[in-house]
Amino acid sequence: MPDRFNLQISYSIELVLQDSKGDRIHATIEKYVLKFFRNKIHELRLYRMNYFVVGPNNLKLRTTTHNLRLTFTQKTFVEETNDPSFHMNMFNLRPFDQLTNQHDVDETELLDVVGQVVTYEDVKTYKQGDDQSVLINVVLEDDQRNRIMATLWSELVDQIQHHLNESANEPLIVVLQHMKPQKYRDYLQHVNQTLNESLEQVLSKESSYWIAAKLVNLELDRGWSYLACNKCSRKVEKVGNKYFCAKCNEEESSVTHRYRLQVRVMDGTAFISLLLWNREAMQLIGKSAKELKERLFEEFHSFLHGTSSSGDKLFG
Can you give the pLDDT at residue 62? Predict the structure, then answer.
């Protein structure tokens, strides 16, 4: 968050933290402790944190519905950790039909939405005193044909104009994060905070993206798991009764099964194939690759002996 008197200076860092149950809470790193945490915390990574100041969540615009918020101090402990089973979900998407019902909308809560741009207006200029900004209104439609209007400001106008110009003959899907809801005309208008790029751009750029899509098929032609080195997680080759890891350049007596699952997904406009590695596949399936293989072996053994009640599901 920039200082209002000097936009080049950071006044604070505002965070949204999610726990293992999916619950979220707002946290603030104020100016006087920024130097301790600026390079220590990064988006979409997992941390163990302790020792906060806990106070009421009385922000005018709230990123979470939690009644409390956290404030970092010099004594706050932060340590990066790793847990492949931790469920990490960047978006908290709200259905359009819920947003168009005034009784279900809290205008102090910032929301996430995903939809197809079905129409948009010309870019407009807004003046307030000596300040001048540009804005554009776009109408979004979800998969149930519900529609809302969204207003994008300043640099985000350039971002979406680029996609609007390139997708003249193709559907444009956008994900908008941390939107302020506001009743306007016959639409629930949203004032934008951040804009994520469309699914179309996933196919043209090499980078990390979040997309909202439905899994429609498992592509198992090349299997769904592999034997991995316990040290580096790379694939190992079996040599006699042992395994050899080319990366570590040594033999391993014990290895583990890890996921390598290829899936087919769609977003309402197109299909693409995605490769899910161990952490993402565990989040989707809820079991480790080792647990799933053991379960399948038990079911297969029971099926051969006529004692399985679910063998028809495995082979049907």
Answer: 85
